[in-house]
Write a structure and sequence with these properties.
Layout: H1 14-27, H2 29-33, H3 36-46, H4 50-66, H5 68-77, H6 80-98, H7 104-133, H8 138-180, H9 183-188, H10 220-236, H11 238-249, H12 256-280, H13 286-303, H14 310-331, H15 333-339, H16 344-365, E1 368-373, E2 376-381, H17 385-398
Antiparallel strand pairs: 1-2
Length: 399
Amino acid sequence: MKSRRTGPPDGGYGWVVVASAFFVMGLSAAVLKNFGHFFLDIQSHFGVLASTTSWVTSAAIAMFHIGAPAASALTLRFSQRVVIVVGGLLCFLGMSLASLDLSLPWLYLTMGFLEGSGISFSWVPAMSMVNHYFARWRPIAYALASSGECVFSMIFSPVFKWLIETYTWRGALLIIGGLQLNLCVCGALMRPLPAAAEDDAAALPSGRKAVFQCSLLKKPELLLYILFAVFAAAGFFIPTLFLVPFASSLGVEEYWPAFILSVLAVADLAGRLFCGWLANMRLLRSLQLLAVVTTLTGMVLLLLPVGRNFWAILGFALLYGFLFGCMVALHVTSIVDIVTLEGFDSGLGLFMLFRSIGGFIGPPAGDLEVFSVGAELKVQRVGDPRRYIRKALRLWDSK
């Protein structure tokens, strides 16, 4: 009588899946995190407000989240392998078509809609695969896989800067699109778990009997977690998008602003690996640990504008990057604690969908000049992000 697998393998080919997911994270999320390098060039090229330009990134972030339920449903219907390959093709089309430079709305469609959808179709099934292949080692496996985002962010930050200066921002987009075609190779490595587990729904849903579970929204715990996700996503991408203009406004020139993003990525990597290891020790529930690091992250972001020079900004970037990495290492695996592994794919899709609300309004909101003088709150929209930073610093000094 053949032995039956009663749970995730927790190793074996699972480590190949982790390695593949590592590259998926790098070629999807790391590219999105480095969109800030194109910000000033696109704004200057089209002669528009910073808030208008930021809708390119905002659209990509929104589609990254909105496309998650579709990615989850297609994963349940077909397989993670197929969906990741489709995602790689969408990313290639989005960036290569964006390089045609037809208009700013064209960038919303290509660099925003297509690229964001491709990232979603790559990221969601890759995370699904890692969580289904592991149980005991799930936190550290997810931390290792998601660290690809950090490693590639460190590499991409100076490389994107060099590509833009050498080939212009349009040529850089075309080259990046070609790199993202490698997502198809990563998808090909995502081997589905054996069919012997078809009746073990907790191990891997079968395409013939698993359906997307919208009924999970009836769980109060998931609704509260989704609310957390909305607020978190509103600020997730703000520092990486505006740190470069912020540093430039303080007189930091040449490659140093890009270096800040690289240092942030190093700290992010350390945070993910540390928190993955800590979560694997089971000293606290993942949700409890997540609450602690989220609070600390908010405190660091509140103090960030106090930095007046390169070294102060670098110190805050280190703290933010480490705590951000801790959050990322926990926020996806915590979904399993709420809806169990059987409902993970559907829960992840719903989580990402509603998180898009925060991701959609976050970057444009970051272009608002908001500061308080006594009881007076002044909110003013301006075109150049460096201008409102300088004004805010002068106002701070005058007080």
